[in-house]
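Field: sequence (string)
Field: structure_tokens (string)

Example rows 1 and 2, in order.
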Amino acid sequence: MPIPAPNTPWPPKPWDHAYKAYAENDAWYTGDTDALAKLYQREQQAATHVHRGTPHRGGLVGAASRMFWGRPVPAGENRSRLHVPAPADLATLASDLVFAEPPEVKLEPKLRAVKRAQERLDLIANGDEAHAAFNEMGELKSAFGAAVLVVRWDTAVADHVWLEPAAADIVIPVFRSGRMVECTLWTEYVDGSKYYRHLEHHMVGAVEHALFEGTVDNLGRRVSLADRPETEMYAGIVNADSVMPTGIDRLTAIYNPNMPTAKWRKQGALANTGRSDFAQLHPLFDWLDETFSSWMRDLRLGAGRVLVPDSMLDIHGPGMGASFDMGREIFAGLNVPGDPSKVAIDKVQFNIRVEEHEKTAFGIYREILRKAGFSQSAWGDYTGQRSSMTATEVEDRDKASERTRDKKILFDRVAIGRAASVALEIDGLVFPGKGGGRFDQPTVVFPAASQEDPEKLARTLALLDGARSISLEQKVRRANPDWEDDQVTAEVAKIQAENRAPDPAAFDGDDEPPEDPVD
């Protein structure tokens, strides 16, 4: 999609449908309870309007009314509503499993002689800055279903190109044959009733910048980039057509889906978007909040209350109220007739259902993790059975997270490799003579998710060696999975040298050392 025409509805179709889903995921991800309440209450009101005059027991109305955050608090009531940040924790977990131990981006072995190019690539994709960007990308694509890795450069800010992630809810991509061929990133600045939107259109060979002044749902008129301090810098680097050529025949933005979409697979342009880890989990997030809110309500109501007659209160004067010595928070006045001295003091103490709430919450936690593809132990052990499980059973139970990690890495490896290749080429043009340039696409190596138990590994290798079914080279590789080929070769040579039998032809029958005085 090129830069839209003025006064275009925003977001444009069919992305207006996708952006409603992005807004819902954003509210859960950020923990914005006001946004959640408005979102689900608005859905309920819209559904009620559509179905006016019909029983509202199911469908949209029923679904919206069943949501905890969609039910308004009745006037005059003070209900505690607590949000549990499980969605944010889920996104963090997804990112941690893939990027807690960062991947290594390197040129192909035949190109390692180009030392300066690898050093430049290390600066772009293997440094702390890049690793932080990858972690951010992991969270964003988990929450929104996809992220875009954007190649950035600014000679006034840094002496090298860098990678920057952008969430799917600020990107409008164009796909062809399943691949993104162009995209528009946008940023919004609100000034009263005016909405300024900076659109950054990435196409092959160039990036176009545009600034629009409109309303909440309309792009409005196109204005100068210099009209906003946030976009003023771009006015000095684009040509008369507001375009900045990149000098390469590739995109400077790479699409990275989280998982293949399921809900939108039949909806044309949306079919190539990714699937959020929150998919089908919104009701469980909502139930978890309701469970903990109920638990906190029990705590509040479980505070002891002492009921005393009004005559036993200390009156502090007109308009000053009254009190009882035991403390205001544990008494309530009762306007009872009769002799005050014969009225007994009563108390109210409600039960706090700790066990019921805890089991319900942990059950919801397990379902959230199961649907998202993670092991039940990812957030701790809620079964109470771990102590009775064997090591093999524990390992098998934890495999779900590793399988999900392996699937996510398939997309991350491609996106990071392409982005790093483009960044290295741009770096060669913007910072000539420092080692950058166009090379074959780098390889991206992710470390193993978990290390195999050394004792178990030793037994396995011994059994394979005894069965004559493993070579020395493979044993070294299994024992050191993160070693390079040259390290493995050197280690194999050392082991062979140490275990080599002496040559019988060189033995002279004298086993005494030459410096022995007897000789």
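Row 2 begins here:
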Amino acid sequence: MLKNASLFLASAVVLTALPASFARAQVVIAPSTPQIGSSNPVTAAPLVSRPSTKPCIVPLFTDLAFDNFTPATFNYAPPSDCRGPWAKVVFTADFTVSEGRQFDRTASFYLGHASIYYGTTAEPRAALSPSWHVERDVTDLSAIFKSDQTGEANIGNFVGVSDGVTYNGIIYANAALEFYPASWRDPAPAVPDVVVPVNGSGGDAGTLNTTTDTISQTLNLPENVESVYLDVIAQNQSGDEFFYFCVPNDQANNLLSCGNTPFRETEIAIDGKPAGVAPVYPWIFTGGIDTALWEPIPGNQTLDFKPYRVNLTPFAGLLSDGNAHTVAISVFNANSYFLATANLLVYEDHNGRKVTGGVMENTLSAAPDPTVDENIAFNSKTGEYTGTISVGSKRSFAIKGYVNTSHGRVETTVQQNVNFINTQEFDVNPVTEAQDLQNVQQNTTVDSYVTTRIGLFTRTSEEHFAYPLNLNYHFWIDASGNELQNTSVDQKFTLTKVDRFFGIPDFASSTLEETKAQDDVNFSTGATSNNATSQTYQYEDSRGGCYSETLTATNKALTGVSKGCKHE
């Protein structure tokens, strides 16, 4: 399956380095406005809105070259002219890949081992050196920006010769932090008092090969913890890169696919007991399935992953008891492998040195129990396996805890319904590989309700996530011996939020990201046809916030930019 997939394991091949004099280039700053006719990576997502105050800009590194698998280190010091408090802190980065041949690569930047950026890179062409810009709001990480830190920039990248093929695309990057001082017009928001990275043994993203593998961090938190959150990223890699194509193990060979079913779910545990769930987003990288699908418009969040925030506040009382506790992360059904990184965000009771409390209820089971429905038939005359496989999972749970704070007893209840369904259609000949049809309809939904009760006051926050993915993939060999592939993708990310005070809505918002892509490729000639991609990002809220942009592209070049409402 996936004849043009970007599955590249440098450790499994013999590598020959290129000469040290190989040409190098500087970072090219991508324009802020999408350029019609350009093949540079571009997304419809908005830039981070800025306060009105003048920022202090702290460069993290400039023109840093990534041509090996050794992470680069850098030093950070807080801005002397903007000591805080800050109205906002914005991370920015610009990337360039030199023209030539290269795979997409994972890009991850850390400060004090806390993740400040995570995404993947674009692929170049022989005559295209792509450049792009990313930025994100990192104000919630302000605690680590207050003191000197050592940073790490990790974009593992092979430059050399493998199996007679030269990989010569070098990745370059600039990165900086923008600090916006607070003012009466732009006050400083409440931010976590403590940020604790949860990573692998090397201090960066940890590898999860199986369900039982974990990354973990032992905590000795202050004794006045009032609320706690965990921002989690679990990235599908290697055998798990196309996990949405995976099938039950008994059909993996017949259907030319990976095993462990297509169901993956990130599990969070505290002291070995279930504490939360994070759904796995089906990120598709720029080399995924067919590179022409994603040029110049990549898939949703491909260049800048969004972490999923798990509310661990019901455990605040437990974590405040003065004892050591362990937070662990795993991925159910990991099949070699996922990379995982997380930041624990801790808010303290500023008017109390110690809080007490505990967990009152926890109905979250240790592991999900997915259902599998196989309907696969074998045709002995054609040698083909045809039919469908459906895999589903439904979880409903409640976790309730309390803390006795300086402003009274606070009870927090997290209720969630987490549903997953993946249905696949197959027509596969595993012997000749002359026919490989695999169509996928996958969706993960999370309905989350968080109720906070302080005396007679009650506030409820709702979040409703959906991760629909419809992917039609067909590879075949025609009568002339041409290897042909047709792919179409429709990928969404939706999120609606509603905050209620005493049951009355006082804020609501909705976000939609959608990418549609299609392409036909003849591997025998290298020709592509019917190539078209579009991406839409829409946001609106009950306070008048509005953003809408749609990008279109054909034949690997941007053809249209449509803006539906005034940008913030």
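free_text_note (row 2): Residues 142-145 form the longest helix (4 residues).
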